[in-house]
Structure to design on (307 residues):
């Protein structure tokens, strides 16, 4: 988990971990573009696998800061796991919905996305950034309102994440 | 009330509506008074994946059996749907442009594709599979792919 020396609450970005599917790869690529390139000082990436494992730092992050989930398919593993971890989802994104708005960006490939997949990830990242800017402009952002009790870690119950 | 036959393979359950007739490609036809409503079977939609885009034949055109009645782009494949019957397209599902996911969520209901005025429904029906035969075909396909 990345932190960069600021006390301002960061928006937590959680991509799905849909291995073996191009759309899952697009969600992760979009997450990297946002957290590493476009809004590195306002966001942090949390790996879904850590939430599934019950990692306490990850659970604390999603329970105390606004979350944006990125899912590659309708199973919505990221969204469900964040909810199950006591997280507060500010916005959920689906790669398929973004693709419907950008039909020319057809993703292919898994370990290595084609140009269409990279373009789709960038388009998704732009939509995520717009959501981040909107969230940052809201009064509750940074207040204690988003603080909550972090639920205790339990055995993972989502096997397909 | 909708009635279905079902077959389950691993975590997937495929439903077959008993009030429909099917072509081997998985397009169903349901008589509704003088018209025939058509759409994708549950098996076909599940095997094809989440639907991203649907392009349907235009209302008013006349289709022969096997002509493309729709082209569907999913996250996995692009598929052309052959019309199971001959006739004039009198209506296409207007919801599919904004909500193509209806095909996945309700393949025998809100996800219908088109309404067709048949030229010779009895002749077409004789070539199609009833629900029991289509279910058997699904089971053969599943076995072949094991």
């Amino acid at each position: 988990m990345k932190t960069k020396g600021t006390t301002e609450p960061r928006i937590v970005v959680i991509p799905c971990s849909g291995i073996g599917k191009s759309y899952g790869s697009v969600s992760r690529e979009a997450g990297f573009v946002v957290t590493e390139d476009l809004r590195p000082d306002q966001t942090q990436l949390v790996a879904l696998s850590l939430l599934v494992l019950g990692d306490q730092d990850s659970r604390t992050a999603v329970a105390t800061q606004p979350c944006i989930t990125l899912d590659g398919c309708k199973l919505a593993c990221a969204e469900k796991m964040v909810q199950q971890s006591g997280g507060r989802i500010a916005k959920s994104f689906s790669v398929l919905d973004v693709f419907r708005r950008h039909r020319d960006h057809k993703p292919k490939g898994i370990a290595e996305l084609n140009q269409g997949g990279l373009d789709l990830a960038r388009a998704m990242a732009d939509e995520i950034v717009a959501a981040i800017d909107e969230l940052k402009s809201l009064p509750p952002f940074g207040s204690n309102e988003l603080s909550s009790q972090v639920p205790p870690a339990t055995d993972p119950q989502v096997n397909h994440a | 009330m909708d009635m279905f036959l079902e077959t389950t393979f691993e975590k997937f359950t495929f439903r077959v509506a008993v009030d429909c007739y099917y072509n081997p490609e998985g397009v169903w036809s349901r008589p509704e008074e003088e018209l025939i409503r058509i759409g994708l079977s549950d098996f076909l939609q599940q095997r094809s994946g989440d639907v991203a885009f649907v392009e349907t034949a235009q209302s008013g055109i006349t289709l022969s059996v096997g002509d493309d009645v729709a082209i569907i782009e999913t996250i996995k494949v692009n598929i052309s749907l052959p019309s199971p019957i001959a006739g004039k397209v009198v209506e296409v599902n207007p919801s599919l442009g904004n909500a193509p996911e209806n095909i996945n969520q309700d393949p025998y209901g809100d996800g219908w594709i088109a309404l067709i005025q048949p030229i010779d429904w009895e002749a077409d029906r004789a070539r199609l599979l009833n629900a029991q035969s289509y279910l058997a075909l699904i089971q053969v396909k599943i076995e072949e792919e094991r």
Observations:
- The first strand of chain B starts at residue 4 and ends at 9.
- The first helix of chain B runs from residue 42 to 48.
- The interface with chain A takes residues 50, 52-53, 75, 100-101, 104 of chain B (CB under 8 Å).
